[in-house]
Amino acid sequence: MGKDMTEQEDRCRLVLILPETDDVEAQAKVLSEALAAGDVASVIVPQYGSDDGVFQKRAELVVPIIQDAGAAALVAGDSRVAGRAKADGLHMAGPIAELGEAIEKFTPKLIVGAGGAADRHVALEVGELRPDYIFFGKIDGDIKPEAHPKNLALAEWWASMVEIPCIAMGGTDVASVLPVAETGAEFVALRAAVFEHPEGAASAVRQANAILDEKAPRFGA
Asked: What is the pTM of this model?
């Protein structure tokens, strides 16, 4: 993604989602190691339950780390925080009206991506607004080793007929990247699979990219 979402490799690429943490400094170090370990298109920085001040500080700490690695830094939900932290984009998972406002206000200066498309009908409504990407799943929805079958089905349907890139949420196992790639999705998102990996986040990024390099279908092939 390197600052925009048009620069694509010829296969599905990795998107990281930062998990909730109390130790932002430690997480920043792990993130830096993960990004140095292999190709990552972007990193989504969610607010979770933290207050705006804490979220602001966290975003300001991690956004430069993400950008220095050549990935796009996407702040979830809060355009003020995204602006102050000089993020590359916004991940919007709220009401469609809010997504429309964000696209109108910030495109093309910022990447504006859309979450919250839980079914085909909503996905098509989102698609009409022309976000930079659509995200299938919840950013904290990795609760099983494998990707959720519904998200895989939506990604496969979308990728076969719509040009807007899609990201599908993987599972808690790094191997879940392959079924996502096989849907034709441009991006696969991992959270716990990377940041809770027993061998560490850097090892997880290496493993995910190795699987994608070796087995993911090639676009345009």
From this structure: 0.95
